[in-house]
Amino acid sequence: MQRRGHEAPAARARRVMIARRLRLTGPGGGALGATVLLCLVVVGALAPWLAPGDPLDMVARPLTAPFTDPRFPLGTDQLGRNVLAGLIHGARVSITVGGAAAAAAIGVGMVIGTCAGFAGGRLDEALMRVTEAFQTVPTFLLALALVSVLGASAANVVIAIGLSSWPPTARLVRAEVLRLRGADYVDAARVAGRAPLAIAFFEVLPGALQPVVALIGITVGEAILVESALAFLGLSDPNLISWGGMVANGRALLRSAAYLVIFPGIAIAIAVLAVTLAGDGLAARLGLTGVR
Amino acid sequence: MSVRPEAAPPSRPAWWRWLGRRVLQAVPVLIIVALGVFALLELAEGDAVDAYLAGIGAGDATFAAELRERYGLDDTLGARFVTYATRLAVLDLGHSVAFSRDVLSVITERLPNTLLMMVSAILLSSSLGVILGGVAAMRRGGLVDGAISVTALVLNAMPGFWLGLLGIILFAVKLRWLPIGGMSTLDGDFSATGRILDVARHLVLPVTTLALTYLALYVRLMRGAMIDAASSGWVTAARARGVPARRVTLRHIAYPALLPVVTMIGLQSGTLLGGSVVIETVFSIPGLGSLAFEAVTQRDLPLLAGILLAGTALVVVMNIVVDLVYGLLDPRVSLDAKARA
């Protein structure tokens, strides 16, 4: 990439962003984020017990205002569905879909980055052009197109986000693999006669993983946001309640029942914030970020 | 890139050579995206004819076969690709099922609105980010720094559609200061300036929403780059020469820190364009983003494919423009040298 004149400034900006990344917040941020994230995971896991029954069922009079009925502390929507139950069950969808999508994106990125960095030459050139192409296509447009072609289901949303969000990981892993490729222990493995693929994935990749940790928080947060935006546009599993879908549902009553829009949005923001902070704290713990 | 004592303005032919090269460099990316879009179209269940027949609500098997033959859809995969590629080469993006019109004409009709919104949002987001990031860097570790960083972080975590709806609830429904959506007042009878002001009023909320959701990146980048620059040798040297503190801050710390920000604008333009899908949908702005949503809901695959291609081309153009601006800002980069590189 260094040979290409136009890449230099982009590479420089990325370096400032990733390699010399400054911490987002102080030391307390990571712990706070991790605690909130843990709470959300527990709530999501215990959803069937915390809020029994189908959150899509009518349980009370429609449009019960929030903070009026202790049985429905956050009120009910226009179909008499319990908003709090929706939020609790929605945590499940947001966190599992967001997490799985981020895992898919990082997985694809690791495989492509390792192959490109380790193979070098034409394969590297070709894979990097593909990475560049995926980075040039507007991410959300790609995810939108993929979901609409594959069909709106939770699994397809995971695939769509995974396929549209892998390039940053691939670039980072490639750079690390390029750095490690010539290391003595890699040469030793070569001399020992290990297959190239085995060396690439079992010797080089583990060493390249640490900086990827710094990307986890951002990637998961981004995946949750994309999932919620897709759900907002109606591109999610219709049988699962999701925070983005709840916002879309409340949109029709913006004038009379704004709380239907406000509550699920707060839930999304809290989840994304928690994930970002926890990821940042984790990266700081591993010494991947500089001073604040 | 070449390091020179003084920046020489590039001569004209060199400038054109540079632009030519830069455009050529984008060709492989565009080809790969075109291939990907073709794969996506092939992956979809049913083809354009199915969608068309469903749209007009009629059609028998012979009519369908006739249409398929006319559009070359019953050929082998290879032949279908050749048809697709040759039509793409002359910018024929096919026929939109939902609009019963040429895809390209639908897209070019919507493009100006998105462009206006995107460019405004980019300028607002980056300039606000530069100012806030700069202030945070100068007050590093203090209360102001903390407040700016936390605000940026929280804005970053908010989904764009939700922030937009909050803006509508507050400024359009409760305070009634701004219109609830759309691009202009439909029954408005305005003079030329009145029309511009009307569009500007309609764009305040969507542009601000879009800008705020992408603000964090610029704040963080500017802050980091300034802290980086402050510890550099040239700043120490400038201080040693007795350059006034204010001038050191602006010229030796803030100015170099602008360069990564400019680059990030190019890298971010795709994300911003993606974000405009929900923002345009929320604010009912007839742009490329809401067009993408319409294409999805109406199962108009040729249109969706055309938008993907147009969006990619737009991002490529934005990146070339950003590179040009970068060349103007950074005295070390001369386009002459770039053309030779």
List the defining traits of the structure above.
heterodimer, A: about 290 residues, mainly alpha, MetI-like fold, 12 helices, elongated, B: about 350 residues, two-stranded antiparallel ribbon, 14 helices, disordered N terminus
Separation of the first and last Cα atoms of chain A: 30 Å
State the major sheet of chain B: 2 strands, antiparallel
Quick check: average pLDDT of chain A?
83
Give me the oligomer status: heterodimer
Q: Please, how many helices of chain A?
A: 12
Number of strands of chain B: 2
Q: Examine the coordinates and then state which fold CATH places here, giving the name of the CATH topology of chain A.
A: MetI-like fold
Measured distance between first and last alpha carbons of chain B: 8 Å
Secondary-structure content class of chain A = mainly alpha
Strand count, sense and barrel status of the largest sheet of chain A are: none
Secondary-structure class of chain B: mainly alpha
Radius of gyration of chain A: 22 Å
CATH class annotation of chain A: Mainly Alpha
Number of DSSP helical runs of chain B = 14
Query: How helical, in percent, are the residues of chain A?
Result: over 70%
Low-confidence spans of chain A: pLDDT under 50, at least 5 residues? 1-8
CA-based gyration radius of chain B: 24 Å
Shape verdict of chain A: elongated
Side-by-side strand order of the widest sheet of chain B: 1-2
Largest interface: A-B, 61 and 75 residues
Mean pLDDT rating of chain B: 83
Characterise this structure:
- The complex is a heterodimer of chains A (292) and B (341).
- Chain A has one domain (21-39, 95-285): Orthogonal Bundle (MetI-like fold).
- Chain A is 70% helix and 0% strand.
- Chain A is built from 12 helices and no strands.
- Chain A is elongated.
- Chain B contains 14 helices and 2 strands.
- In chain B, helix 5 (103-138) runs antiparallel to helix 6 (143-157) and helix 12 (288-297) runs antiparallel to helix 13 (301-329).
